[in-house]
Amino acid sequence: MPVLLRRLAAIAVLALGALVVGVLLLRAMGAQVALGPLASPTPLPTAPLAPITVPSGGAAPSGRPPTFSQIEAQVRARRGLPAPHIGAPRLISRAELGRELRAQLQIDDPPARQAAETATLRAMGLLTATQEIGALRLKLLTGQVVGFYDDRARRMAIVGEAGLTPQVQMTYAHEYTHALQDAAFRLSSLDLNARGADDRDLARLSLVEGDATTSMTLWALDHLTPQQLAAVGRGGAPDLAGIPAWMVRQLAFPYTAGANFVARLYASGGFAAVDAAFRQPPISTEQVIHYDKYVANEKPVAVSLPAVAAMLGSGWTEASSSAEGEATIDIWLTGLGAEAGAASLAAQGWGGDRLMVDTGPAGSFALAWKLTWDSPADAREFRQTYAAVESRLAFPSQLISLGDRTVLVAHASSKEILRRVVAAVR
Prior knowledge:
Blueprint: E1 11-13, H1 14-28, H2 68-79, E2 90-92, H3 94-108, H4 111-124, H5 133-144, E3 145-150, E4 155-159, H6 166-185, H7 198-223, H8 226-233, H9 245-279, H10 285-289, H11 291-295, H12 308-312, E5 317-322, H13 325-335, H14 340-347, E6 350-359, E7 365-373, H15 376-389, E8 397-401, E9 406-412, H16 415-425
Parallel strand pairs: 2-4
Antiparallel strand pairs: 1-3, 3-4, 5-6, 6-7, 7-9, 8-9
Helix pairs in contact: 1-7, 2-6, 2-7, 3-5, 6-7, 7-9, 9-13, 13-14, 14-15
């Protein structure tokens, strides 16, 4: 499943920022609270993330909002990285943000790539025949994003139509952390837009956003009053009408699961441990969700598929081929209608996978998804959960066991194409 944010990693989501503030505040008080819809069941540390104090005064000693330079100095002091060489941020309107995002997506996701992504998501059963990923993505991001850092131009922009509100201050703390990351580690070196590496891309993006979300939250707890934090939490919900729920979950994952992951890093060695992770980033979303697998450096199993398009005949081309990973399997199963807890359990025990989607004449398509699991029980859990929602698909499908730990999911636009896909892979 294509990663929604791609290279434009440096965005802040206001609703998620409020959620993270509330959860980390509870953690700082000693409560064990899991953060995020895909949080790992691994026990979280009970100790506070840091010696946090919530001041009784305003955001600045004078009671006036702090300047951007004050926020920068405060974030640097918390994060422990040297100042980047960047210009002042721009306060823009939401309409201007929409234009910025539209231009950015035209660079990162040109029409041919969007068409391939749409074909892939339709073949997975996540988009209808009339839905286009480009239009949905633009609507989702325009409604959710409140600021960004562009690591190519090294510039920041914040939606600030209401002035320097607590929400804007938090957003700037988040985006300024991205500028610190870029100067210290070069975000471009993470190659967040790599083809054929969707799971790895999402895992690395989770480190980037988890760090920025944690830094933002710690800054807010240090420099905003309880009343200001409550105001952030009361922020209005964006308009998500017509946006599939799985898209919202995928957008949220790098912030929520990423913040969980960074919290575990921080608990193990402060921001020095987070810095070390930028030099050895997670290689799968399984490592992000299950921190112990990152520590153990558990690597995915390499899974391959034959060139199915060549076997389907003239006019067939490969639209996508990538490893999808635990987070996407979870999101995909819930997108098909599985209960959230069942989907999460079915995705656990992932060992490795390869998803391939091919497109052919007259809108025909073929999907082959080979998944390897850690144990026969894990494979059985996945088969049972998929079987429970398979009947909801609007096209022919088949689930086949290729051994006690490996399964094949096949989707196609017709029964004959499905038969040929299965024959090509078995």
